[in-house]
Amino acid sequence: MTVSEANGRASIYLAALSSNLIALAFIGQISRLGVAFYAFALILLAVLAFVGTVTFLRLVQSSIEDIAYAHRIALVRSYYLRTRRSLSRSSLFSVGDGRLHSTEPRARGNWRSRPPG
User: Fold this and answer.
1) Interhelix angle 35-83/3-31, nearest 10 degrees
2) Is 115 inside a domain boundary?
3) Structure confidence by residue, pLDDT tens digits, 35-90
4) How far apart are CA 96 and CA 117, in angstroms?
5) Taking the mean position of all CA atoms in its chain, how far away is CA 95?
6) How far is CA 90 from CA 9, 78, 100, 103, in A?
7) Residue 35 lies in a domain
8) In degrees, to the nearest 5, what angle opens at C-alpha 105 toward C-alphas 102 and 110?
């Protein structure tokens, strides 16, 4: 799954959420929060909860797949760096245990380089 597909899924869900809230506001004004409003809200919110759950599960699944792909890419890259030493001089990353480690030092003001706490 690409990043654009994940963004598309999240955008569609947010559009559905805002549309449902606007529809509920209109029905609430017309029905003066009567029985029609509660029936309409029950249907819309049940569908919205289902769509939200399915969207969330698919985004989590795609994130897990992306992590697995990144790990496999790192393994292939480390294989090439181990077999071709000439590549390691021009590389930005060093060979580790299949993960990529940056060889350049982090900037002092970088928020990621600060210790927690």
Assistant:
1) 170
2) no
3) 888 999 999 999 999 999 999 999 999 989 889 999 999 898 888 878 877 665 66
4) 28
5) 27
6) 39, 14, 15, 11
7) yes
8) 100
